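Data availability (excerpt). The following record was deposited with the supplementary files.
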Amino acid sequence: MRRPFVARDPERAVVERAITGAEPGGALLIGPAGIGKSRLADEVVTAAGRQGHRAMRVHASEAARDLPLGALGPLLPAQPPKDVAAVLRALVPGHGRGLLFVDDVDLLDPMSAAAVHQIVANGLLDVVATVRAGVELPAFVTALMRTGRLERVDLGPLTAAGVAELVAAVLDGPVSSITVAHVQRLSAGNPLYVHELLTDAVESGALAVVDGLWHLRQLPAASPRLTDLLNARLRSTIRQERPALELLAIAGQLGLSQVYGLSDHDAVEGLERRGLITVRQDGRRTYAALAHPLYGEILRTTLPVSVRLRHSRTLADLWERTGARRREDLLRWAVWRLTGGGPVNAAWMTDAARLATLLRARVAVRERLARHAWQATGAAEAGLLLVAALFDAGRSGDGYAVLDRIAAAADADEDRAGAALARAFYLGWGAGRLDEALATLERAETVVADPEWRAALTTQRSMLLAASGAPNDALALLEPVLGADDAVPLRASAAGGLAYMLAGRFPEATRLARRAHRLATSAERAHQDIGVLTGLAGLCVRVMTDAGHAAEARRFGETVLRTAAGKGDAHGLAWITAGLASLELPAGDLEAARGHAIEAAAYFRQVSSPIGLGWVLAIGLLVAVHEGDPARAATIAAELAATRPEQRQVQLYHYEIDRALAWHETLTGDPERARHRLAARARHWWDWGALLPAVVLCNDLARLGGARQAAAILGGTVTQWGHGWPLGETVAAFVRAMAGGDGPGLEAAARRFDELGFTVYAADAAAAAWAVQGPARDLNRLAAAVAAYTARCPGLRTPLLAAVDVEHRLTPREREIASLAAAGFSNRDIAERLTLSFRTVENHLAHVYLKLGLHGRNELSGAPPRI
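Predicted structure:
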């Protein structure tokens, strides 16, 4: 498999600074095995060689350590020099600059070490050396570091983002977040371990392309390659040390006192000394854990079943004697008890099943705990927890069967309402059968007397009404409970956030969506709220984005995505990645939007959600059209056509589908049909009081040549409905300016779109200003502004942009270099990344500055010029 070099830009920059000064210098790379020391050094040396430096490589080894000049020998003449001075004469070039790479500098033979010492101390060559962390540094290396001649560069594990970049580069394609999180957890950021894990997973078939996305179809057993690398250390343990290792492999971590109570004290301390376990202080508690996650994978894979059962029962018994230290301990106890056997406390098992659901634990674990709790208690709550797990696993038939049994046995308002809420949720949001869902809730209201549960049923009805495209009807139902922030429950907050968003009332939508997420993450929720949680983060991203808080939405969404990926939560990942795709498309990051859309579609297929799949296919189609990719657009459009009939009643995402179809019709040569579609659907939403879809559709209508139609739909009372919604106000101003041929108004709209984070819309508004004003105004200035916006939207293609004179736009190479420079890369970095000469990069940037009317890199990194 490919072995790309990625995610080490900061460390590389430090090394290059150390060796590119006025005088030769040196850098020492320190890190554990497999962390990428040698690879980083080799990349730096290779780059220096391409720039004309004499590049030399030395690989010291234990075998050559006792041979004079055993390390430097390959660089020396056939007749070896007799002293260090002769070695230096042979190595140092007569002219120009040279670079020496010394791998494992601690293994140099004495004469080679003396030569390297003299080279660095006297500034004869640039030197990059490596040494493994934990190894005692040679005295000459310590001395060079103390004098500042050798700069220390510590290489730690890759960050989560670095692992994601490496995984995508190795597999050469988009990768599911769940897969990246799994690799991150097992590798702990070690690049060698990442590569070996991926190689074994691909070869075993555990990792494969599913729906255009690399995805772990099953969790692989311990990697054979890594087992070979790490097993030697585990095999070195003695019999007394095995119990502690095995217990920690099953438990993950334990209090140190607990480990002492279950195993030999001296053995535990020996394991810590040899780096097989770590002991850390956390407040007043001291914990022990395996030193690397892969040790646990290897031990669990090789553990005999009888030993696993015995240790699981021992750990469950220990928990029952000592009690939980953390909330998650209850989950661990439940799994240990069911694995190891022994008497089960049914109430505790129900609590564990509820906690597993709230924490979005893996579906298999949730089903196991909930099924045991339901069988032991027969309680409706346990049954509803099982229903949630079954639907999340894509087994809707089994889920409805359990719901039937719960409803038949229900003899209390709580149970009757709980069963109705769950059935309505899955009928409405899962199957798109809103009529049946609403009828279920209305029937339940006739037999439920408790006011709190009746309010919950009404709130669920309001959410379904909003989903059907009637936000004002939904808000009419919610009015009794939408009071002060501290009094609105989770379900009502989510329903209100959705309804207000559709109605274009974003101050209220933002307030309630944030409250809903705060409630969901800060407190334990009862089973009737569980269905709300999966799509809640996606709703928050959409509300924040359309409210004009794109940067906040992106930070929030990426945080939620990492959490969901770490838990393996496919439902949560589906909605949050779809939300991020809808954010990145108008922001102009088409590559990120495409990747998120592909990933979200794969998850929606996995969890059998035609509603979510239709939405994200629409986003993917919009991305393909905006990238000018007719083949990919046709493929997505075909799947969307097959998916859409299953959403006949859930209208919430239909406007996104209509947008996508209209843009596709424009791409395929039928713009009139596209404009007719957009105008008809915009009027429909406007008449229903759903201003968000109407305004978004009118924005597209104006961008595709129907500005006068859009202006007629929106009417002249924009300030009345747009107040508090900056995007709506800006769209209305853009539409008016387009319809009236108002060049300055279009320029102002472009600036405002850009301030709100909608760079694609800004580019189109600027292009429209260019088309309207033409030679009568400063044509170069307007075209340069269009180029500045499109430089931040690589690959963007729209009809308005196509009309701008190409002579004034950046070439693809200029756009690529401008984007890298704007992101903070130096000219040297850009030259290395694109395999260009330093002078070529400088020339391209000079052309960019001239075309865009900029005075230098600082202006390129900021906002586009005021046009």
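Summary of structural features: The longest helix spans residues 305-322.
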